Input
Amino acid sequence: MKKTLTIITCFFACLISTRAQTLFSMTAEGGSHGFGVIFSYDPATSTYKKVLDFDSTNGSYPYGKLMLASNGKLYGMTTRGGSDDDGVLFSFDPVSSILTKLLDFDYTNNGGAPVSNFAETPDGKLYGMTSQGGSAGSGVIFSLELSSSIYTKLLDFNNDNGNAPNGGFIIGNDGKLYGMTSYGGTNDAGVIFSYEPLSSTFTKLKDFDYFSNGGHPGGNLLQASDGKLYGMTYDGGSSQFGVVFAFDPATSNYTNLKDFEYNDTNLINGAYPFGSLIQARNGNLYGMTPDGGEGSGVLFSIDPSTSAFTKFRDFNNISGSHPYGDLFQAGDGKLYGMTLDGGSSDLGVIFSFDPVSSVYTQLKDFGGVDGARPYIGSAFIAIPVAGPVPVTMVNFSGINKGNTNQLAWKVENEFLNYYELQRSNDGRNFKDIAQIKANGNNGYNYSDPVAGGISSLYYYRLKSVDKDGNFKYSAILKIRKDLNGFLVVVSPNPFRNNLTMNIESPVQDNAVLLLTDLNGKSLFRENRLLFPGSNVIEINKVARLSKGTYLLEIITSQKNQVIKVIKAN
Output
């Protein structure tokens, strides 16, 4: 299926058996110290387990949701706690239940009070935001490199470009990150924006004006199967109780789909939505409001093709009230969520909703010590449980043949759904490159084109997945591409803002990098130390070059090489 690394936005929840998954989430309060907990919930057995107590040192009052990264760990943030009480960034191992604090937010330098969740890009980086702090106190955009845990602040919000992002990023079909801020912009009612990771380009796409198109959005955007971005605003619109909207990133067309409205003494369709929408497998969008209905919020759906709005449930204090988070569709097809209040202790509940039968089930009442009051952005994340997988891997091998790595594997006792072939350039951060349907044969082959790649050493592994979603990994296979001594590879070429090259050197050496135009005029010169093997070098001083063709010369004691490179728009 996939032969090149692409960014895929998942519109619908993955089909995983309920017995093969566990849900993880957090509460903003409760636990042994009162600062919140991380917990797991098994939908198949209704088993709830508190797996970690926040204690202020490792963070306190976590908003938002956890994110499952490609390395198998969960990543999240707390709004307070840590050395400066401005929040922490952490990873959590769901197998060992070990939390590792990766960063203390300090407000001024790296932001503070994060509310958002993360998005992971194919280069192994997590992107997130803080709602406060930074140079203007309006929050920041940052990245975290998975392999090294290096934090990089990328942008300071300054009110003109937005203020107080209370949601997270999504990765669009075009590879850009999309998000919103709750305040700032022309009308101080929030903005929609995009951020291009490769070029670090921030673009404000829409200013909310409060009255006609809503104001103060609090959740994430959702890119649905029609390519449009969908979201909600907390207030504004015709009745000033919030709206549901669509935004087309291709045309910048904004459409107000639904005004939450006031009717007599009741906000019958809900009011003040602060969470995000999800697209269920039936194609409809589902969401919640913390107010309106009978006074404690509602659960609703909206058809993106017709804008038809349906209210399914009025929350109440007995079975759960005031949901500020998001829904999640699990492998059994049901939607799972939480409320801030209500239940037997008035500390919130866990519930499920079946979109087929419209049946609401109260699953768990939070009691305080086991967690309490899941708040803004709270939602579940599913982790497949690696159960016994019916296959025996006899052999997994590969060889390089020029611009192609040829892989082969032999199996026995195969009762699988498919194989997922994954590739890495560092042996740690793997990305899917192909999905091969299991066909009952004992042997499989796959050819991976590596022409123009930026690496000479490739790592591969196989993920064997059965029909229940259980999986296991093969041993890691290494294939080295024969580069015949000194060689320079530039990728991508044409380039835009950064010129990246891989210089393979047989010995430690000094290199002179020289960039000229076609008339020989020197535009850039730099000396670099080369080590034996692969040396990846990035030149970021070429963004202002005009569109055209240039010559890149690499001079070492071993060999000189000249490469024609093209600057794109």
In short: The radius of gyration is 25 Å. The chain has a mean pLDDT of 88.
